[in-house]
Amino acid sequence: MTANDGVDARQLRNVLGRFFTGVTVVTTVDASGKAWGVTANSFTSVSLDPPLVLWNQGLTSLSFPVFEKAGRFTINILADDQIPVSQRFARSEENKFDGLAVTRGLGGVPVIDGCCATLECRKVATHDGGDHRIYIGEVERVYSNDRRPLLFGDGKYMVAQPVELTG
Length: 167
Ligand SMILES: Cc1cc2nc3c(=O)[nH]c(=O)nc-3n(C[C@H](O)[C@H](O)[C@H](O)COP(=O)(O)O)c2cc1C
Fold this sequence. Notes:
The structure is a single chain. The chain is mainly β. It has a domain at 63-77 and 91-154: Pnp Oxidase, Chain A (Roll). It is 13% helix and 46% strand. The chain has a seven-stranded antiparallel β-sheet. Strands 3-13-14 form a three-stranded antiparallel β-sheet, with no helix packed on it. It binds flavin mononucleotide. Residues 23, 38-42, 55-58, 61-63, 86, 90-92, 152 line the site of flavin mononucleotide.
């Protein structure tokens, strides 16, 4: 199978996996106040002034119609002891929040306890991105602590090994 003009889909996946990232759970609420969330490593910073970030979502995700409509989302950056949280939100189901400790943030969007950072965003733009939708958010409130972030690359979870530079 080819992804585009002779680029093999599996090879492309492998190459993209060489770009190691953090792991986030992006959360929102629907019109009824029900919480939704999805594990995503497509999160990236866009602009400092104004403060903009983006992430993108597969069009076939169960929660796609909810995020597409939502006016807000929150990026929850997972700490390295939150692999079970990542796994929970990487499954396609409706009640991922059962038994999970969260605080309701701006607009009632859930902020997951125990993360190493969070960014509460107002959605300001969406763009088509092939089989994904790109969401851009303006950051309205941030939080961070000293917990170590969870990493993901080559299809595996990892923990960060800091390197001290000398000289
Ligand atoms: C580490 C990791 C990163 C992921 N990143 C994304 C992403 O950026 N965008 C996306 O749409 N799905 C991503 N996924 C897959 C979704 O989490 C998965 O499809 C999930 O089932 C979607 O939930 P839903 O179908 O309930 O909406 C990722 C999964 C993992 C494990």
